[in-house]
User: Fold this.
Amino acid sequence: MNASKPDESHPPLESIAAEPLLTTDYEKRPAALYERLRSQYGPVAPVEVYGLPVWLVIGYPQVLEVMRDPRGIWSKRLSSWRAYGEGRVPADWPMLPIYTSDNSVLRDGAELNRLRSAWSMGLRPFQDRTRPQAKELERAVARYADDLITLIGEGGPTGRADLSVQYARPLPLVIVNRLLGFDTAQGDELIRDMWQVLDSGPDAAAALARVTGAVAEVCAARMAAPADDLPSHMLAAVPDLTVEELARELTMVIALLGDHTATLIGTTAVEVIGGHDRMRESLSAGMLTEVVNRAAIAGPPMAGTTLRWPRTDVRMGRFLIAAGDPVMLSPAAAHTDPAFAGGVDPDAIYSSRAHLAWGAGAHACLGRELAGTVVTIAVDRLFKRFSGLRLAAAPEELGWQASPLSRSLRSLPVFYEMAPDDGARRPVGPPPEQVGGADGPEQGPGRPAAELSLVQRVLRAFRRG
Assistant:
């Protein structure tokens, strides 16, 4: 990849007949799509994302180099997008709210370092397993996971369930609720709003505004009275954060932890249940971290990254990418590149740690340890509490939902068999997360409404959605 002066022999991005990225192949058969694009274009391909042309980087070495950006060529600032500055990005472009959110994802340099310092120090109590907050969070994750599995088991010792809707997706939202310090009295509507935002439904913009407002209220409250939660620890690390800055940062937790972690839980479950021998062997050997690592390679939760823009013309593969052109990196495609996959021994005990599921460079995920802990515990509880799990649909019929940034399971139907003596009949939900005033069939037999737990509220929000 070389920086160079403009070369008229290379057609500009806008003149290339780019094919849409969001196709059936992208949703159902992404590996085949990446192979075809690589064969046709090389390590970078012109694609169309919601009507706009974008360079999609699919080569492993190229994705890694752009992420690391050793020469400072790449910008994450919206002002670097030439088409946006020229008014050629429609105001209703579906992804535009991401790029106008003005959080650390869209920052560089000193501003980025300041905000990442808040993240790094704020997350430390919850990621450092020697700290009491991390230990308590791990116990809470296991407790929430058991509550969700118990709710499934209340349908009988054997039956059918949707592990995406009833387990993988609700669990991280409960963790988000805990980390952000939301008062349980804020109730079902806020959790439902998070779900609307993640699914990019017709009410997503209004839901995001409500969630952002609720996060801002928590941030303002923590400035006056700190607590033992993520907003308070971020403020302690960088005291000059404003309410607006902190709220913009923390709103990202819903997507980064709430959605990406759910994606990895679901992907890991499919890889194990779907009959991948190495995954089952690793699980049987107690190598949970390895199971999750293999799943992260097979289906990275961040299938694509937010856009970057080169500050100067850059030659990549057969194309010259002009300064200000939008560039999207694809970790999912990079993992299928022979430059990465060709060097992986399928019979090795351990898989490669050189994958890009958590990014690299200045924008690498700072919460990977927390996300890994949540996924590992979730997978552990799932396969300990169920003695048998079988897919209730063919792998190609599973409910995948794809966006430019992710490819996640929205439906994972299974036939289950509860493990004997697994405690599935115990009451759901520990104090202090009991809430009252709820209705409906989500109550267990004979359980008063006042004992409904947070996990039940999350499931009710999903069902109503």
Notes: Residues 50 and 94 are 7 Å apart (CA to CA). The chain is about 50% helix and 10% strand.
